[in-house]
Amino acid sequence: MKLLVTGGAGYIGSVVTRMLLDAGHEVTVLDDLRTGHAEALAPEATFVRAPIHDAAQVLTPQAGFDGVLHFAALIAAGESMVKPEMYWHNNTVGSIALIDAVRAAGVPRFVFSSTAAVYGNPTELPISETAVKAPTSTYGATKLAVDMVLTSEAFAHELAAVSMRYFNVAGAYLRPGGASLGERHDPESHLIPIALQVAAGKRNKLQLFGDDYPTADGTCVRDYIHVEDLARAHLLALGAARPGEHRFYNLGNGNGFSNREVVEVVREVTGHPVPVEMAPRREGDPAALVASSERARAELGWVPAKPTLQDMVSDAWTFYRAHIA
Q1: Can 139 be counted among the known catalytic residues?
Q2: Which of the 8 DSSP states describes residue 312?
Q3: Minimal CA–CA distance to 165: which of 125, 223, 244?
Q4: d(Cα 249, Cα 110) in Å, to the nearest integer?
Q5: Each residue of 25-64: pLDDT tens digit?
Q6: Backbone dihedral region of 289: left (phi > 0), alpha (psi from -120 to 50 degrees) or beta?
Q7: Which of 1, 27, 124, 256 could form a disulfide with 45 if both were Cys (CB 3.0 to 4.6 A apart)?
Q8: 131-164 burial, b for 16+ CB within 10 Å, e for fewer?
Q9: Active-site pick, 87, 119, 139, 166
Q10: pTM
Q11: Are 63 and 105 in contact (CB under 8 A)?
């Protein structure tokens, strides 16, 4: 297939692009490099440097694209609460411009990188796709808005749409004989890469927010998924998309790991100390977020190949030492 990947210079988008190319697809990447990295771009892909608001310059009826995989978004929930206008403009307005271009060009498939943040503080665990949607951040609200647009587009215009709602993504894609791809945000806000920075001596300590939650060790519990497993799910979603349907899939490994457990695994994998400082809870942080991925397993035949925290941290550490430290 001929495919457009937006945000293909970012963490998840670059891994999906690589896997699509390895599977024999023709890929064009649209990215403004605002948060992406040029070195993460696959050389075999056609690269267009532009924001998603300008997607119509690429998605023309003559171009003959078979599908779009959309990863271009701002992702920091905390930042979204102090700069909401930036998130609405990029994540929602930009996505609507992209969807408009998809419709005008007659592109039949659309796979959207959504988020577990649409559920907010869950009323059930594990979280299924039918759980109440009540985002507690502007970031989650912008993603839910795009999900709603896609549902309307599928109904009115026969778009084959799939939204992938994922939880905490970790690890790296260590390609045998090829360039490795991993996580490198600036500033970094995710627990595992921050813990690796501490292990590498780039930070003095790691802050954990709250140790009085109703969990086994008092710290938050989160579901983690390896970026390779996540990327494979997107390839499966392309084949599962059906005209006039908007499908939703939660992606996680179905097991929660506490913040303290993550720190212990980082210490084990790296062999370095990770000093921890406890801090007060952050407002809006749920005690536990764990996904039910039964629908993805049943309908896509998706099974995580690297479900352990050791796999994720080990691959992330290998990438970190080779490309960042």
Answers
A1: yes
A2: H
A3: 223
A4: 14
A5: 999 999 999 999 999 999 999 999 999 999 999 999 999 9
A6: beta
A7: 27
A8: bebebbbbbbbbbbbbbebbbebbeeeebbbbbb
A9: 139
A10: 0.95
A11: yes
